[in-house]
Fold this protein.
Amino acid sequence: MIRNKLAHWDRATTRVRTVDGRLIENRQDTPPGREAVEIARAVGVEPEPHRKQI
């Protein structure tokens, strides 16, 4: 049941290699639904928008 409520809270990772060989990685989360936010907060995790480029 909890797994179903968290199922749509995803993280997409895109990796691209540049012509000079560097790896660029971009990660972005989908916004969590109301129930996913409640579950995360109940276990001490504050769901924040995540977008990171490495």
About this structure: The chain is about 25% helix and 30% strand.
